[in-house]
Task: structure prediction
Amino acid sequence: MNKLILTAVIPLLFSACAHAQDSSFFSLPVEVQDTVPVDKLAVGIGGGYEYGGIGANVIYFLTKGLGVFAGAGYPLTGFGYNAGFKLRIVVDQSSATFMPYIVAMYGYNGTIVIPEFQQKNKTFYGATVGAGIDYRPGNSRFGYLSASVYIPFRDITMKEYAEYLNYTYGITYSTGRIFPLSASIGYKFILQRHKISPPAPIQLP
Result:
């Protein structure tokens, strides 16, 4: 089911971005006015897996479309982290108002939180994939909002722990609270940008 959901969502996001633009992804003319180069290095704050819970992350784009990131934060059970890759659609070498992306990461992807017995709280780790949108309102040069939907890949350990709490300590934790999807939202502050290549000179016959 998780794979079917991901297979359906990601192509729709990429298709929407492609049809929202009037030109191809490759070798597009650069606008003279209001062109903002895409970020190369950014620091974000927010909530979700890529922020390690409630926390921060840093992302560095090796190319205009491919970035690596790491995040750390508080997932209500102590310390959480995640690290992975982000692949986004870049048009015209510059930041668009909406830039769809997909992510893959490894780190914290689930928690069991029991307020009455905090010593029994536990964090679980594994692989996670997702898709989202970077939204840059007002042609901002300083930062942008980022929102994602995730599919965490968890083994049986998390459900087994919930059942263990019930049978051993009488602590009721319904496995129905272990959701198959998750989400994040945050704001990225741009520290460095890629340079925009000048247009190639016109060759006269």
